[in-house]
User: Which sequence fits this backbone?
C-alpha cells in the first residue's frame, strides 16, 4: 500500500477496502480498534453524493458524533464528486470508519490511480477544481492510499473536546 497526497501521508495502517463492484448495500465490518465501519458501493454518478451523505449521517448518529455531520457531509460530497469526474469504472465505494473515539474517517475508493492535487492558486475564474481546498480546510488530515488496482482518497475529522 502506497500513501501520497495532502496532510494525510502520515498515520496509521488501514486495511484495504472491499473490492468495487458488489451490489449497492451498506455493510458493517469490525476493525482491530473495535469500532465498526460502514461501506456502500454506488454508481459513479453525481446523484450518488446524496446516498454517501446519508451513509455518513447514519454512522455519525450511531457513534454519537453528530457535531461532525455538517463538515463530514461536505467532505464526502467533494470526494464523491472527484471520483465521479476522474474514475474509470461505473461504480465507486464509500467508506466511513471510526479510527478512535472522537475521530471519523470518510473515504471514496475508485479504480483510477491518478492522485488528486490540492490547487492553491487564487485565480477566481475557475468554476471547479477547488473541492480539495475545502476538504483540506474542514479536515484534520486527508490523503490518498494507492492500491494496485486504484486508490482511496480519505479524510479524517476529529471532534474537539469541550
Assistant:
Amino acid at each position: 500500500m502506497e500513501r501520497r497526497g495532502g496532510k494525510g501521508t502520515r498515520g496509521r495502517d488501514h486495511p484495504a477496502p472491499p473490492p468495487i463492484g458488489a451490489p449497492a448495500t451498506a455493510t458493517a465490518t469490525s476493525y482491530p480498534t473495535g469500532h465498526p465501519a460502514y461501506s456502500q458501493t454506488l454508481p459513479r454518478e453525481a446523484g450518488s453524493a446524496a446516498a454517501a451523505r446519508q451513509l455518513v449521517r447514519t454512522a455519525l448518529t450511531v457513534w454519537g458524533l453528530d457535531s461532525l455531520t455538517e463538515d463530514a457531509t461536505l467532505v464526502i460530497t467533494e470526494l464523491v464528486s472527484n471520483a465521479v469526474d476522474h474514475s474509470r469504472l461505473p461504480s465507486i465505494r464509500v467508506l466511513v470508519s471510526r479510527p478512535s473515539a472522537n475521530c471519523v474517517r470518510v473515504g471514496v475508493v475508485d479504480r483510477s490511480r491518478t492522485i488528486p492535487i490540492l490547487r492553491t492558486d487564487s485565480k477566481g475564474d475557475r468554476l471547479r477544481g477547488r473541492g480539495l481546498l475545502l476538504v483540506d480546510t474542514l479536515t484534520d488530515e486527508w490523503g490518498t492510499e494507492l492500491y494496485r488496482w486504484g486508490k482511496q482518497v480519505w479524510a479524517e475529522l476529529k471532534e474537539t473536546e469541550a
